[in-house]
Amino acid sequence: MKLYEWAAKDILKRRYGIPVPDAHRVQTPDEARVAAEDLGGAVVVKSQILSGGRGKAGGIRFAASPDEAHGLSLDLLGQRIRGLEVRDLLVERRLDIRDHLYLGLAVDGSARLPLLIFSTRGGVDIEEVPDREIFRRPLNLEEAQRPGFWPKLMAEAAEGRGLSAGVVAKVAGVAEALYRAFVENDAELLEINPLAVTPEGEVWAVDARMTVDDDALWRHPELPRFEEGTPLEQRVKALGLSFVELDGDIAVMANGAGITMATIDVLARFGGRAANFLDAGGGAGVEATAAAIEVLLGTRPRAILINIFGGIARCDDVARAVVQVKEQKGIPVPLVVRLAGTNQEQGVEILRQAGLMAYQTMEEAARAAVAAARGG
Amino acid sequence: MAIIVGEATRLVIQGITGNQGRFHCARMLEYGSRVVAGTSPGKGGQEVEGVPVYNTVREAVERHGANASVLFVPARFALDAALEAIDAGIKVLVAITEHIPVHDAMKLLFRARSRGTVVVGPNTFGVISPGKCKAGIMPGAIYSPGPVGIVARSGTLSYEIANHLTLAGLGQSTVVGLGGDRVVGLSFVDVLEMMEGDPETRAVVLVGEIGGTAEEEAAEYIRTRGRKPAVAYLAGHEAPPGKRMGHAGAIIERGKGTFATKVEALRSAGVPVADTPDQVPELVKRALAGGGG
């Protein structure tokens, strides 16, 4: 789950004492004007969307006065930035920034450890900064909690980068707090970019991004909840299925993320285009599978391709689900089913009795689905 | 020989009294795996499918010589259960459980490394050495013993490919499911290294997918140190650019992790990449005939 900037910064400030510029979250231009007045006039108006690259897409603007903040808010609210509607703005005190640092924590799949990333060339172009300007270090889970660890590590990370000892000490304090926040909130990603240094040597978290592990949300009732994805994706997610909308016309369902991706690939190889990615999971029963098929029908495809390799999932359950939907709701488009593996014979027989056939391989089924979608 | 599990493997099933544990205990016994004990806190003294149930892994180790665990414990309790198995001296931990929080997985693997425990998963279908031991939830019937090692990130897709191989007369030495989570115990490279040292394995099939850098690392290993022939299939050619993990993800992966970079890395390491799963057996036959092994 991604957190909005305002929510991530709120956590960093309130619970971890990381310096964050004063700001107000607003939803109307009038509120923006009042916020800017309160913050002394010169402010930054920031669109709150669950996506990076806001600055480059015009979602972050600078206002010299409350009137200007009002005007910019009028323009930004309701606009779509990177495909997402702007409903909230963060009106933030504008800082005089000398250095833009980058400080981030992520999960390093290769090291199987948290990864610290630091650069003195932070800001909007961080992704283009050459490797040698980026310090990376997988963190030993025990060492990262020892006293003295963070000052030493950050001194190493900042060596030769022109930061004063005082600034490095402040950065180390932020890094240590950030690590605590990363671990305590089950974050997958927690980054401050920029971590701004003012001419006076103060250090401020000007922008923050945080993604919390969905699998750990149960132990974080204190965190706010934000939904991502299209309305349809959200509805299907609530059914416990993994679903992504694509732009083709053949609805696809398979059991397992890898085989679902492979089904979409094989479909494309034979000239078809998938309307969606729907992973019904390894062991979906009749009802869950029927619900998944109904979701597919709801996308109004030209054909449906169901590709099942039964391991834990049983072919007879899938066949029963198909027949159930066919009898109760009707399936008005060509339906191509591939069944292999556990209880294949029973599944094929159930389909046959309902007047449906099943293919044995996914390659054959994909070809048939492409032909069906073309009306052949 | 095979790798990770074999004739000498004595399994304990953690979470044996749950639905999944109970069901798959029966399937593993049916296959001929030595399931010597199960655990379920507070249920010690019961039996499941004739297998004695204990409260702790330590009892299973002490009384039955269990040396490998298959873990079905629900995600919320999985970390504690896994640590218990590691501390009881279990050598191979197969963590079937899905949705284990990533920070729990990092803690689990951190401890496993310090104790030398091999962790398969989490979120894996398990590991099988056909004809010898099935430690997981894969359908046993699709495998047959033979010279091909399979290492896969994804379960069902690997079943698809194992099935094609078996139908083509190409049996398997060991099939390893790395696990679908971002942080898992074994990498492609770890398993490739084990397969290099396994006389029974004469060729390796990698079943990968987009995201992460594990396939690129595997390609680098094969290019520099691999002696046995390898073949790959990758899923995700048509996947739209996935959810980006903020800047950090882009910085970590830096030009890796896409379908194209993975295929390029593998091909330049001399690993043929199949366009569709049904092409894999033909590529393996050619690799075996090409004098590998």
Account of the protein in words:
The complex is a heterodimer of chains A (376) and B (293). With 376 residues, chain A is an alpha+beta fold. Helix content of chain A is 35%, strand content 25%. In chain A, strands 1, 8, 9, 10, 11, 12 and 13 form a 7-stranded antiparallel sheet that branches. A 4-stranded antiparallel sheet of chain A has the order 2-7-3-4, covered by helices on one side. The longest helix of chain A has 20 residues, at 165-184. Chain B has 2 domains: 11-120, NAD(P)-binding Rossmann-like Domain (Rossmann fold); 138-289, Succinyl-CoA synthetase domains (Rossmann fold, 3-Layer(aba) Sandwich), CATH 3.40.50.261. Helix content of chain B is 38%, strand content 22%. Chain B is built from 10 helices and 14 strands. Chain B has helices at residues 19-31, 57-64, 75-87, 102-115, 155-167, 188-196, 214-225, 246-253, 259-268, 280-289; strands at residues 11-14, 35-39, 47-48, 51-54, 68-71, 92-95, 118-120, 126-129, 133-136, 145-152, 172-177, 203-209, 230-235, 273-274. In chain B, the strands form 2 sheets. A 7-stranded mixed sheet of chain B has the order 3-4-2-1-5-6-7, sandwiched between helices. In chain B, helix 7 packs parallel to helix 9. Classes of the chains: A alpha+beta (376), B alpha/beta (293). At the A-B interface, strand 8, strand 9, strand 11 and helix 7 of A face helix 4, helix 5 and helix 8 of B.
